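Researcher: For the record, we're logging two predictions in this thread. I'll number them. Prediction 1 follows.
Model: Prediction 1, sequence and structure:
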Amino acid sequence: MLKVLVASSKGGAGKSTIATNLAAHYAVGGKNTVLVDADRQGSSLHWSERRALQADPVLGIAGLRRDWARQVPADAECVVIDTPAGIRASEVAEWLEYADVLLVPILPSAIDLEATAPFLAEVADLARVRKGKAAVGLIANRLKPWTNASQAAVEEMQGLSFPLVAQLRDTQGYVLANALGKSIFDYHSEQVRSHQEDWSRLLRWLRKSA
């Protein structure tokens, strides 16, 4: 079973968007997929509810309940966990007991990079990470590649202590799809396919790391 944790110490980094689209990718690919939402806003859980009537639904589970792990079906093939906003490294340690991979989205701004750097330093010192039992990957999110700011941010992220495993461009497609309980992996237009390709490196890294 693939178990992926999505976490960020900085609010608004897009972790729920990443969690829902990742869950949808595996569901569209035919895997029994579970999306655990531990964020009080419940964005991922609401998304899974909107998706329920589609041919490839994602089972949503409220991660705020202590017994959430018992609700994961035995035949689940993929579990994606959307953690609380502004999570601390000590809290990540608890969630990593249930996951093999941690994804950390970072926005291309100096404020976000400054806020994330100490968080990553603490994550690097977590037992499961230090012992190589949990892989950590960084995601540059909502990039505008044509701007100097995004280019400089990506260069700085590449110098951080964990690998940069994806560079996702900014698009309203994520917002529009989310409102329908869908993802960019549910569409096949040429424009959407170009954004799907942004995920290729991440998906390859997950296959190797999990």
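Researcher: Logged. Prediction 2.
Model: Prediction 2, sequence and structure:
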Amino acid sequence: MNERTTVLVIDDDPGIYEFLQTLAMRKGYGVHTAENGEIALEKLDEIRPDIIILDAVIPGIDGLATLRRLKERAPEVPVIVLSGHGQARTIVEAMRLGASDFLRKPFEAEELELAFSKALDNRALEAEVISLRGRVRTEVDSLLLGGDNPKMRDIQEIIEQVADTDITVLVRGESGTGKEVVARALFQLGNRRVRPFVKVNCAALPSELLESELFGFEKGAFTGAQKRKLGKFEYANRGTIFLDEISEMAPGLQAKLLQVLQDGEFSRLGGESDVRVDARIIAATNRNLEDAVKKGEFREDLYYRLNVVTIQIPPLRDRIDAVPLLVDHFLGMYNEQYNKSLEKLSDETTQLLMDYHWPGNVRELENMIKRMVVLGNEQTVLKELTQREPVRASTADDDELDLAALSAGFSNGQEVDLKAISKRASRIAEKTVIERVLGQTRWNRKEAAARLQISYKALLYKMKENGLSDSR
């Protein structure tokens, strides 16, 4: 028996609570019973159930009054209300008082199992929200450690202005800049913070699986669909859903998402009726959506629906003065987490970090500091960093033509090797373009090769020829 999952059954009908007890124990749950509200409230002092099943009609304190007092005492515990009458007024009042679900008697065992699953999933999501609540502020503070960067101050101002609204927000920026941190900040500072925050990575699943993940399916919708499955939008009801990598969503799914944005409803796979949902949508992308719209890869009407308020996060290389502040923050955080005591970084390491171009942005810096703390020294990471393509402070010999030296040569009447100059200029331009495209694709070499219209092998050769590290 799983003692961590317990059910409290409040019902005065022996037949019903024996049935419920049998069903719950079959699922591996521990079960407690109470014949009325008074006994249930007394037991609440001894146990803290994970789920409560409450009959709406019980002796003594009636079901709705019991529900009110249960939610006052244990607001985090989901309550499934049962009723043989099913009057609309009772259902509405039960849901208003905080019931997680409502089942009419008689009900099938499958219906109760689904209600169990939904209640536990929602509780797990709410527990995640609580555990992340303190961390969010720290993460937001670390993200906004932008030195004196005006762009970061603007982002903080926008977050504070729109967090407490239901307006759709599109967060844009390169991979690793902190788009999810901004999404969680919008959620945590908003009026839905006590409700679920549900994240979906639209690039992590193929289109067919993503549709069922987002919108759920009915029993028999396809082979293997043995029972109804709720989608992420239903779990996010009255809360917030974060759609990461929104640009990777297939056109068919984009149309269904547009319906949710416009009408607040959708249909499950295999469903005959629409499901209404109230979820705030925050979307994120590291791609240029305007280009995707022009290429027909992203719906224009969906783009305008999402692009109500945009937060553009600058890459770390454009706010390099934030690096020392971020380093101090991550050192403190991981020293505490791993019980280490890595001292302040050396001036040499700090300068290398300031000179590096950070294609992986804040995430790359965080992982680097984390490794330093775990290893207990900075030398291994320092050696790795010096082997990478340096830096923003490139030399004239390596990354640019020395026009001053050429000018002096002209004045002295020296011969000029135009072919060599052309070749050098071409190499510098090629290196610059390749590095820029690699940065835009988060060093995804296959995607970069496609954008550069060369083969994957040709890109690897050119990276080696131009001294661009292949070990990132």
